[in-house]
Amino acid sequence: MENKILGLHHITAIAGNAKRNYEFYTKVLGLRMVKKTVNFDDPGTYHFYFGDEAGTPGTILTFFPWEGIGQGRTGTGMATDIGYSVPKDSLEFWTDRFKKFNIKHGEAAERFGEQYLSFQDPDGLNIDLIVSNTDDIRKPWETEEVNADVAAKGFHSITLTLKNVKATAEILTDVLGYKLLKQEGNRYRFITDAIDHAAIVDILELPGTAAGYNAAGTNHHIAFRVKDDDILMDYREKIAGRGLSITPKIDRDYFFSLYFREPGGVLFELATDNPGFTKDEPLNELGTHLKLPKQYESSRAEIEKVLPVID
After folding, report:
1. Which residues, listed in sequence order, are joined to residue 79 by a DSSP beta bridge?
2. What does pTM read for this prediction?
3. Beta strand pairing status for 42-51 and 60-65?
4. 275: cis peptide before it, omega within 30°?
């Protein structure tokens, strides 16, 4: 199984205010700040990583909080809805919590036989809390207000909104090893049997919907998980062999990556488990220090001056 795609590695989204983003995900949603670093291409902007205690692949939601970037628009050609796995009987807690913090949310509903609760973060990012039909034994990060009985365990799924399902479905099945599990109306559920969590990709087919616009409140890209560099490069050959343009291997400090845009327009990444987030911080101190890519370390003082204060 280890030479397969191991479900989702991380999802990266865009926010419009660093402090607000940090406070929502750590204090309201109750995730751990796993890594506080900067955008590789824009060191004056943070790159936040939120997840479980260790930043385990399949739990990591990351953000580029570009101050004042303006509101994005969800639409076709992008990942539009993030699904988090939550424990059974936790949706009432989350409904009450969202009311307490004035978080925009819907009513509990059912899809593919699973209960879910939709809400939007302060930038309008669409997220679903989903009670999975399969037992999720992952240990979540806990806070004083969000304990393990209700806490998000990591990703359940990601939804891609596309004009047409066919070409993207072929990449998922023929290249990435997913299979079509079932269909409800214009929603198609794909799953990998290589892992038992963060294993689902839904495609919502909306041919008449306008293309999305990437800014605050939208997903920038989704990353699929592979065990190591060797498997990563095997997939590079497979993807290039399909005639798709794919990047060389890129060192992202905490994992190695490849990027390509699938036929429906969504930016896909493949990312390795190695070396992980304890590369430059001990487990008990993850997310407490500003960690800079080595090329920016000599400019630390200047970078710290322009980054927003979030503590």
Report:
1. 160
2. 0.97
3. antiparallel
4. yes
**pLDDT exceeds cutoff 60 at 49:** yes
* Residue ranges of domains in the chain: 8-306
When the pLDDT of each residue in the chain is averaged and rounded to a whole number, the result is: 97
Domain spanning 8-306: CATH superfamily: 2,3-Dihydroxybiphenyl 1,2-Dioxygenase, domain 1 (3.10.180.10)
Q: How many whole angstroms separate alpha carbon 216 and alpha carbon 74?
A: 10
Q: Which residue has the tokens 């998922």?
A: 172
Provide the pLDDT confidence category of residue 3 given band limits of 50, 70 and 90: confident
Instruction: Please tell me the distance from the alpha carbon of residue 146 to that of residue 30, in angstroms, as a whole number.
Output: 6
pLDDT at 1 over 60: no
